[in-house]
Amino acid sequence: MSKLVLVTGGAGYIGSHTLVALQEAGFDAVVIDNLCNSSEVALQRVETITGKPVRFYRGGVGDRVLLDQIFAENAICAVIHFAGLKAVGESSQKPLEYYQNNVAGSLVLLEAMRASGVKRLVFSSSATVYGSEAPVPYVETLQTGSTSNPYGTSKWMVEQVLRDAANADPELSIALLRYFNPVGAHPSGLIGEDPQGIPNNLLPYIAQVAVGKREELSVFGGDYPTPDGTCLRDYLHVVDLALGHVRALEWLADHTGAEAFNLGTGQGTSVLEIVRAFERASGESIPFQVAPRRAGDLPAFWADASRAARELGWVASLGLDEMMADTWRWQSENPHGYRAVDEEG
Ligand code: NAD
Ligand code: UDP
Description:
alpha/beta; about 15% strand; about 350 residues; binds uridine-5'-diphosphate; 7-stranded parallel β-sheet; 11 helices; binds nicotinamide-adenine-dinucleotide
């Protein structure tokens, strides 16, 4: 059995960390990425960390000709599908781009897999598929839907497509991994999250405040019904998340059907707790002001992560201190991300 995995979006934040985990677990990887939100330098850094090559094809998952070429040239046993657009706010401005990339792109990938007889797929889904009405903690058996933006809806739609595909082909084996809030970076400081422009997410924003690139953090909302008034999220270390993909690949080898797994720690942490934890880990102070709520934010959600523990044998093992220390190492050693200089102008 080949141990060669096609990783779509492998140059991105979670993809690059997963490449390291795969190679360290004895898998080989081929990457397809159009670099619309990433840099090829990330792949070189992965090779530096693991000492193993990553075969790279630059292009989009909507390119059927390229996909057919990749499957013809490589004996691929499974696909991990990260490629997609992920900015929640932008998805409301550009819904067609989000459905084209995330939904249509996934369909083309599935057709190419079918044509080449590849039956195993790990899909990057998100806690956002639980929608705005779900009770916490989120458990996989809850009904999904009621998503509130095209990004979330695109993830929900692909989940439905994958379930239908698995119903139609009993040989298909699919893991729908619902990530909570991935943060942190590889402990080497060589790879990490490298957002373009002003970061939307909390940790990259805090990290840029810490290196002096941004003046202060806006804490979106201080009047939520939570212990300190700020939102609670289930932050998990990206290195743990990457290992979850390896566990899922192993699970695919002796299961069929499409199954969902939450990947989170099972604990909620507030925005202010994150600020304090980052200050502790970095020794830097993070000036902030409490600003109005951000449209669409839910007050609090976290995972029931027991299914992944039970069935995949996966639990998040790294805590907040490691998440913050590794974010800080990555940001302070790479203040402009993968670029040599600040290109924001
Ligand atoms: P990322 O933007 O760093 O990585 C996505 C990669 O896919 C990038 O390298 C980008 O260039 C590439 N890409 C985008 N569209 C493509 C296309 N059509 N063809 C080929 N390549 C394409 O994002 P990430 O944080 O690493 O997220 C990876 C996946 O996990 C995404 O599907 C995202 O929606 C999902 N996810 C992320 C989070 C999170 O908080 N980071 C949470 C839940 C789910
Ligand atoms: N947040 C914040 N300031 C920022 C970015 C985010 O206060 O500059 C808050 C946001 O309101 C949410 C939490 O941090 O409560 C996590 O937000 P993020 O965008 O990282 O993840 P989300 O859970 O929204 O996907």
